[in-house]
Write a structure and sequence with these properties.
The complex is a heterodimer of chains A (162) and B (298).
Chain A: E1 2-8, E2 11-17, H1 23-30, E3 49-52, E4 55-58, E5 71-73, E6 80-81, E7 84-85, H2 91-98, H3 108-121, H4 127-134, H5 144-160
Parallel strand pairs in A: 1-5
Antiparallel strand pairs in A: 1-2, 3-4, 3-5, 6-7
Helix pairs in contact in A: 2-5, 3-4
Chain B: E1 8-10, H1 15-25, E2 29-32, H2 36-43, E3 52-55, E4 64-66, E5 70-74, H3 79-85, H4 94-102, H5 106-109, H6 114-119, H7 127-133, E6 137-141, E7 147-151, E8 156-158, E9 161-162, E10 169-176, E11 182-188, E12 198-206, E13 212-220, E14 227-228, H8 230-236, H9 243-254, H10 267-297
Helix pairs in contact in B: 4-7, 8-9, 9-10
The chains are: A alpha+beta (162), B alpha+beta (298).
């Protein structure tokens, strides 16, 4: 086993990884960060989406060793801004809550991370931008209408008070 | 299901060490780049015997050389990075840009590499079809540090089987820029983010009378490796690119072919949609070639 250092939600974590470990297994089973969900486990559903250096990736097929020294954002870190944990939810989380952007919630962690990566690059996304960003995140109960509304509302809210 | 449990993940900057390991361990070792395709196959039980994963990601292959006459792309360039560069949206390389946009989702494009797309050698991927239509060649480097260029057309032997020997890796892929030829890529999948059922890429030039001067067509998903549509090309050369002519040429050219069936599409279904995919692809390439001629005339 190799020891690697990850920078997860602004905090350094040292963890021992096996040669075949994926980032999702390390996050969930070694670090106990179960906000990142395991769905299909081979890149078909998006529940495991995390941000690595600002880019959305499937953590179920991302070799853990590639994450060494990289800045990783999981759903647990959405409400951390400039290394300070907000007293309330982040704007993306609040928008999903207020606009009914989730039902069972299993896909939601991945969808919110995809949203974060999108809005960081495109603060005023078009419908096509959102469809492209969410193409790899499957929801089977909410339906995408409310999710898309939540993303537009989050973008608006972040523009008004960054 | 056999369990995937390699005992080593070699993540090194030492190219000689990586290639020697690939050679000495033979089928017990496997090169890995971004990892998206590899982990999907591994978790489905297709590569259980591998004991050594040899990462190519630190071997200095993350480069793009944009010369006047050609574009050379290092094996570990990420798909999203190549797409963002905009270098595949002109000079006859449009099919590559189209294919990159059709590889979804962004979670895969952010991680998957150009070399990985080439070397995985499965019928359901998109980038090789577009590279083949654009006349790509690959540079292979061996454990003995010998380098050799090979037309991508000669690279594929079968599904999961390429010309690479133990200890070889693809170092880079090169495509020549074109002045008159323009290209396009079209894919049909079950959903926008799925692998292809079939895909097509066409590179063509038009004569002054608007008829097809030259055409190079490749198809993916219909055989175990990408296939050049020579008969189709012959039927279209010298003809005006018209929707009916293209569909008739495709139906004639493939009437005796047995297309590779999959769980998502039978041979008959693929045969029914192939002429439509080819029609859209040739029409788009023609439109681009016409626009280029008009631009030169102005």
């Amino acid at each position: 086993m190799d020891s690697i250092v990850l920078i997860i939600n602004g905090k350094q974590e040292s963890v021992r990884v096996k040669p075949y470990d994926t980032l999702s297994r390390v996050l969930r089973e070694e670090l106990g960060m179960t906000g990142t969900k395991r769905g299909c486990d081979y890149g078909g559903c998006g529940a495991c989406t995390v941000s690595v250096e600002g880019k959305a990736v499937y953590s179920c097929m991302f070799p853990a060793q590639y994450a060494e020294g990289k800045k990783i954002l999981t759903v647990e870190g959405l409400a951390i801004v400039n290394d300070v944990r907000l007293e309330s939810l982040s704007k993306i989380q609040r928008s999903f809550l207020e606009n009914g952007g989730l039902q069972c919630g299993y896909c939601t962690a991945g969808i919110m991370i995809s949203t974060k990566c999108l809005l960081d690059n495109k603060p005023e996304p078009s419908m096509t931008d959102i469809q492209e960003a969410l193409a790899g995140n499957i929801c089977r109960c909410t339906g995408y209408g409310r999710i898309i509304e939540s993303i537009f509302a989050a973008a608006k809210s972040m523009k008004e008070t960054p | 299901m056999p369990i995937f449990r390699p005992k080593e993940f070699l993540y090194t900057e030492d190219r000689d060490l990586a290639l020697q390991k690939l050679k000495s361990e033979g089928k017990r070792a496997h090169a890995i780049a971004g990892g998206t395709g590899f982990y999907e196959l591994a978790k489905r039980g297709y590569i259980p015997e591998v004991k050594h994963l040899i990462s190519l990601m630190k071997l200095g292959l993350d480069y793009v050389k944009n010369d006047q006459s050609a574009l050379t792309i290092g094996a570990t360039v990420r798909l999203q990075s190549l797409l963002d560069s905009g270098l595949c949206d002109g000079n006859g390389l449009e099919a590559i840009g189209d294919a990159l946009r059709e590889i979804r989702p962004v979670q895969v494009r952010n991680v998957a590499t150009v070399g990985g797309e080439i070397c995985i050698s499965v019928p359901i991927v998109d980038l090789p079809t577009s590279l083949l239509a654009c006349g790509a060649s690959v540079k292979i480097v061996s454990a003995e540090n010998r380098e050799a260029n090979l037309d991508l057309e000669d690279f594929y032997i079968d599904a999961f089987l390429t010309s690479l020997k133990y200890g070889d890796i693809v170092k880079e892929v090169t495509v020549s820029k074109k002045s008159r030829e323009r290209s396009a890529f079209v894919k049909l999948g079950r959903t926008a983010y799925d692998f292809n059922l079939i895909n097509a890429a066409v590179s063509l030039s038009l004569r002054e009378d608007g008829k097809v001067g030259s055409i190079r067509t490749f198809l993916g998903g219909i055989k175990r490796t990408p296939m050049r549509a020579l008969e189709f090309e012959k039927k279209l050369t010298g003809k005006r690119p018209d929707e009916k002519i293209i569909v008739d040429a495709a139906e004639d050219a493939f009437s005796k072919e047995k297309l590779l069936p999959s769980v998502h599409g039978s041979s008959e279904y693929k045969m029914a949609v192939l002429p439509i995919v080819l029609r859209d692809c040739v029409m788009e390439a023609s439109k681009r070639a016409t626009a280029e001629i008009q631009k030169v005339d102005e």
